[in-house]
Amino acid sequence: MLAQLQVAPEGLPLPGPEASGDELFRLGLLYSTGQGGAPLDYVSAHMLFNLAAMRGSVEAKVYRKELSEEMASDEVAEAQRQAREWLAHG
């Protein structure tokens, strides 16, 4: 499921619209730590945690909040824009 649809610029494939909150959360963890082939990218991580939270991941809500405290407001806004775009194309 994680190998479907789009590919994040210089990163891992983005999950398809059927991805679960857990899958989105795990991918967000990779981006937030720069592991598993994902670049360290807080904007992508925040976007994925946001989507995971929308799909019921309680952990994603906690990680999203903590991550947003490390980000500039324009980065958070970009992550939210990317999440909306992902939802619109799903």
Please tell me about this protein's structure.
With 90 residues, this protein is an all-alpha fold. Helices cover 60% and strands 0% of the residues. The chain is built from 4 helices and no strands. Helix 1 runs antiparallel to helix 2. The longest helix has 17 residues. It starts with 20 loop residues before the first helix and ends with a helix.
Helix content: 55-70%
The SSE string, one letter per element, is HHHH
User: What can be said about the biggest beta sheet?
Assistant: none
Number of strands: 0
The structure class reads mainly alpha
Helix count, DSSP H or I runs of 4 or more residues: 4
Evaluate the radius of gyration.
11 Å
Give average pLDDT, whole number: 88
Strand residue content = under 5%
Tell me the overall shape.
globular
Q: Which stretches of 5+ consecutive residues score pLDDT under 50?
A: 1-7
Distance between the termini: 13 Å
Oligomer state equals single chain
